Amino acid sequence: MTARRRGAATVGRVADFPTDPWVLTERGIDLDALGRGESLFALSNGHLGLRGNLDEGEPRHLSGTYLNGFYESYPLEYGERGFGFAEDGQVVVNVTDGKLIRLQVEDEPLDVHRGALEEHERSLDFRTGILTRRLIWRSAGGHRVRVTSRRLVSLSLRSVAAISYEVEALDEPVRIALQSNLQANERQTHSTDDPRAAHGLQDTLKPCLDKANGKRVVLAHRTRNSGLAVAAGMDHVIEQDGHDASLLVASEEDFGRFTLSTELAPGKPLRLSKFLAYHWSGQQTVEWLRDQVDASLESARDEGFAGLAESQRATLDRFWTHADIEIDGDDELQQALRFAMFHLAQSSLRGEGRALAAKGLTGTGYDGHAFWDTEAYVLPVLTYSVPHVVRGALEWRHSTLPLARERAAELGLAGATLPWRTIHGEECSAYWPASTAAFHVNAGVAGAVVRYITATGDEEFSAGPGLELLVESARLWRSLGFHDDAGAFHLPGVTGPDEYSALVDDNVYTNLTAQANLRAAVAAAERHGEEATALGVGAEERAAWQAAAEAMHVPFDEARGLHPQDAAFLDHQTWDFAGTLPEDYPLLLHYPYVLLYARQVVKQSDLVLAMHVRGDAFTAEQKRRNFDYYESITVRDSSLSACTQAVLAAEVGHLSLAMDYLREAAFMDVRDLARNTSDGVHMASLAGAIIAVVAGFGGFRDHGGELNFRPRLPADIERLAFPLTVRGAVLRVELADGQVTYRVDGEGSITLHHESERIEVTADAPAVRPLAQWPGDEAPPGQPAGREPGVVRADGSDAHRGAGSRRSSGA
Amino acid sequence: MTARRRGAATVGRVADFPTDPWVLTERGIDLDALGRGESLFALSNGHLGLRGNLDEGEPRHLSGTYLNGFYESYPLEYGERGFGFAEDGQVVVNVTDGKLIRLQVEDEPLDVHRGALEEHERSLDFRTGILTRRLIWRSAGGHRVRVTSRRLVSLSLRSVAAISYEVEALDEPVRIALQSNLQANERQTHSTDDPRAAHGLQDTLKPCLDKANGKRVVLAHRTRNSGLAVAAGMDHVIEQDGHDASLLVASEEDFGRFTLSTELAPGKPLRLSKFLAYHWSGQQTVEWLRDQVDASLESARDEGFAGLAESQRATLDRFWTHADIEIDGDDELQQALRFAMFHLAQSSLRGEGRALAAKGLTGTGYDGHAFWDTEAYVLPVLTYSVPHVVRGALEWRHSTLPLARERAAELGLAGATLPWRTIHGEECSAYWPASTAAFHVNAGVAGAVVRYITATGDEEFSAGPGLELLVESARLWRSLGFHDDAGAFHLPGVTGPDEYSALVDDNVYTNLTAQANLRAAVAAAERHGEEATALGVGAEERAAWQAAAEAMHVPFDEARGLHPQDAAFLDHQTWDFAGTLPEDYPLLLHYPYVLLYARQVVKQSDLVLAMHVRGDAFTAEQKRRNFDYYESITVRDSSLSACTQAVLAAEVGHLSLAMDYLREAAFMDVRDLARNTSDGVHMASLAGAIIAVVAGFGGFRDHGGELNFRPRLPADIERLAFPLTVRGAVLRVELADGQVTYRVDGEGSITLHHESERIEVTADAPAVRPLAQWPGDEAPPGQPAGREPGVVRADGSDAHRGAGSRRSSGA
Hints:
The structure is a homodimer of 811-residue chains. With 811 residues, the first copy, chain A, is α+β, with helices and mostly antiparallel strands. Chain A is built from 19 helices and 32 strands. Chain A has a 9-stranded antiparallel beta sheet. The first copy, chain A, has a 5-stranded antiparallel beta sheet with strand order 8-7-13-18-17, with no helix packed on it. In chain A, strands 20-27-28-29-32 form a 5-stranded antiparallel beta sheet. In chain A, strand 2 (43-44) and strand 3 form a beta hairpin. In chain A, helix 16 runs antiparallel to helix 17. Chain A starts with a helix and ends with a helix. The interface between A and B is large, with 50 and 50 residues.
């Protein structure tokens, strides 16, 4: 019997994630799914992110330590280059790894492959923000130790992470050696051809400085192409009863190590507190950065692990007060929603003027790039819980405007074209039909700007960055589109959210969100006349925006009674769903764009998304008919889709279907439904799960800055409660017992609409209304065969996998 | 005064090309335009091509020796790869250079940079097929020599080229050394970012064998990736009065050299005949290839330069009998048309089952790839002059069907999808919207198949390769398209000929040529029932093709009375021509596709091309209106456009405009109108010039296999005569003196239509008819500002350049 088999036999090959409302726990360890755990258990504060790697560093899928905005660039290759193709790619850098703590027990390394792992458990507590690992390991030589490590990335000290590592001899005294490392330019073993994964670069960091002093090591590096400098440091505090340990500290160019060796008596654990600090800059010297690292380390040591943990808890308590969604009747869903909200919080709270990437700081998926989904999916959630974080994120967008203006000019357009994917602000996509042509990025940002301003009343932002973002986007729309002979305004040659169509005319989502953008720009320019004038906005330009908005063409097929996704969409043949095998999904990995673009097949909500964010532009009947139709051709090869389908399913009355989609969105990562959680968690799908609850079952819409609710509770849910922060007050909405209660925490009143009734709610005067009765869900629309929503089953399988088996067996 | 300035002063910096009906002569040498001369004076036989490099090899733009089908492959790079993207590129290889003959005069190298070039003239004779170079050079040391070299690539011995190099002392005895080289893996100094130029690879050839023996050297190499082997050999014969020369022969891996040194007395020239032979293979050993080279060299030596020259003349005499177009009244045009026909002949006559590349074998432009223009532009000309050559070219297409079937399957389509660009048969384009989506390649090939079969009556081809090409393409159309609810058949998501639109629905050119393809497939399957059955064609499939063809949707805008180029084309805004500067053309180098695709701007004839090749599908009134409209938005950033505009301009009655376009097409290379003749001559534009004459002024159409003529003579032309080979006989058409004469050379009769009259012509009974009177050209349509046809002026400038100057000066 090999050591590995013994270990496997002891803790089970497949990890178990028990249901718990506030904690995600993994019992055992699945060596074939290490990557998933690394993403799920990643810790971050929006500035610094650590993947949930094992303390000892190996085995691993991908080691990761990321700093928001810290990237390397590389030239994009083209077999055939065209004018305006993006020049350089950017990729998030795995900076110096400080998570590493290696343990030797009587000359034998603690390694989950070796000896026997008698217990192994990792748990992430959403209230404390601490990742705890507990294990009992018996070495091949028969020595048993218990290790307890706790890890946090501080929400109070932005540059700091800390690890408490405790090791205890269980049966007899054992000699141990602990090595606590800093390692730069880690080799990654993992590689893939999946276009959604990351671009691997090696030896990105040029060494600049390495210093060892006391129990502290600081390393500084600079990226080779982008020229960014980073300094990383570690310091240590040892708590041990009994005799002294031997200590050694050393540094090399890419490496720092603190070593401790001692003999442990049973019942007398040794605890090592390890403090990490990271600072980076595009301008400052490495000496400056080293000073900052040393200062941060000193602050962290002064707080100590306990102090940092206490601040962490306090910060999260405040967060949850404004953000917690309570759902009774589905404990798994409750856990998944808290997991989602926790990741949204930790990926953004200390972002402070940097981008929110599609994977946060949890992995290298999509090269660490931020996309339109930040503004379209993530910010709508954060706007109503931590609005100051949204301001920071929008200020990042605003800071990229000079690059976006340059890009628009290069493309022969006015205003600014925001990039499809980027870290620093330049367009980084090497496939222009799905990126440069996706002008709707601008509309999504404009929508987030408007939402943030109405929800907060932040006049300073409104007159400054907000105005400029709206204006430059309005200019883009005007130059991109044109009035036809009959006066209608068209936006030709664009790509909407659905990536299985491209270069279409009058994409309904794009046209409607651009229309909102144009109107908002007019209103903002009128409200902030002086600031608008300073931006060169005159009466002619305002009038032109107004005219374009009012004349905006929204194609509608009278004969079919449907909105086409774009002008020609319904003229195409429908995808051959019957001839498509389950293993042919996602379609983009098995069919060429030339076929996908010319067929009616929808990767992700597009027209349906338009019906959510511009629901005011559709009648109830149109929504119902459109939803049913697009449901039949939407394959959800994107994780951005299920949540929006949940929202519209709920609106048109398919509550059980909405519940299925909510669960798919919420379980995307904890059940690894897309099989790529190892690249990082799906931030927009996590946000989407919250949206599915609040906009779906809460029936919340904020069109035109009004707070509208059409709440409806599905059969499975007993009670649903969520808070919305609006202009400093907190509106608490609770659905239970056939009624909905609107309450206010804080000063002043909040005006809202319940169904068609206008209600003013104050702290003293909550409103209670009966929930509208829904006639029931008699005929929910069907999906393409095998693409039914991923109903997660007790055995951990999901519909995609299940459908696959069914189809293969001929059913 | 430097040697270079002296040389330059002597012969002039700008070369002069005097008008001559049968010879293209360059007097003097323009060191800044060496590349143009290398392309214009390139020699080829369709199997082997030598660029017109100077004998001494330098200075040069690009040295080139090409073997049709001999390529290297390399992986195509993508910043973002998608399913079905082409994997590998292919690039024509500059194989072992045997053109090199270097002369030393009293220890000083003959170099056009040094000493004084008192005379320098190169002339290409279209009847002899020989490139002659005459020069008188005075060395810096004051020694004068006359050099006369003659070069040919044999049309009788396919693997052989020969050079006669004569050197003579003019004033006093001089010691000379001649070095005749074979050089593999030549370093090229030239590089460019222009996407239309070639992909440079270095050290492509791995040495396999080098042998020196007598005056002969043979080198053999193998490409690194594609694994093709090539053997090249040279042999020499010396003719000299007087005393013996010292001789030396040597070989290295990449190099072979024959050296001769002697003293020349004035009036006693030395003549060296150099014979070259090339053989290549993907299967055979280098030893086999070496044997073939030695055998070919022996045959060449046995024929001698004079013998080879005699065969060359005889072959070309036969060719001209079937191909010469006579035009009286415009000597420059006469010369340009003969130049065009000569290049068409030499690029194809011994192609024998290989592709005809866009640049023939005259340069590395477009990596040496063949495109759709071979079948759409070049083969229509060759079909009526050297039909056996067309069979060879179509057999090459047929030989690629297995690869094209694989490609179709990869794309999820039936039948075969022929590549946009290739050497060996695999798709090599790294930009799919303008390649994979350009399914019209199949229709162009089908059209060429039908034309060849009707013009020759080749039943063997018709029942074999022809049938299979038609069937596999028909299968493609059926799987690509669909019948809508009303029954109409659509082809969605395609790219037509115009590269400033892409991924459109129902491109009229594509739909109409696909319709012809479908009909031809039905007819061929019925005519060759047994063979069709063997290909799996049954009644259901034939009926489906027939139904698709009859229901083929051809969009027409009733309100505007125009055919849109594609379904949505006329719904787009027109390009901002007024805001486009002359230096912004070609647009593709200054604007992104995202803008070009969404605007009404036409790179090259598309709807107008449809009106030529499917003229039977348009009324005269539609042609007139369409032509006028598309004329106003066509910028001719492609050399494939002017000729088609000439054809339709002539048809709708704008004869003077047609003449301008004919001249632009004809002078494309001899005047270097596109500024890239250095990459190789524009084979399709050369063919287009012939088409402009025969289809334009001859009014010749072959819709449905009928020979229709509506001849009209522009004012500038006194007489126009051209032959058409039809089923073994030669129909001679002559326009002069207000009448047209139809004559037949050979047996049998030819039935034709003149205007609406059906006429049968035999050798004994020519037909003479008056030319229809044309009301005159009162209102020719306008072009976008600065994009008027390139009227070539006496000073060698063209409209593009002229327009540029005019626009820059504010006019």
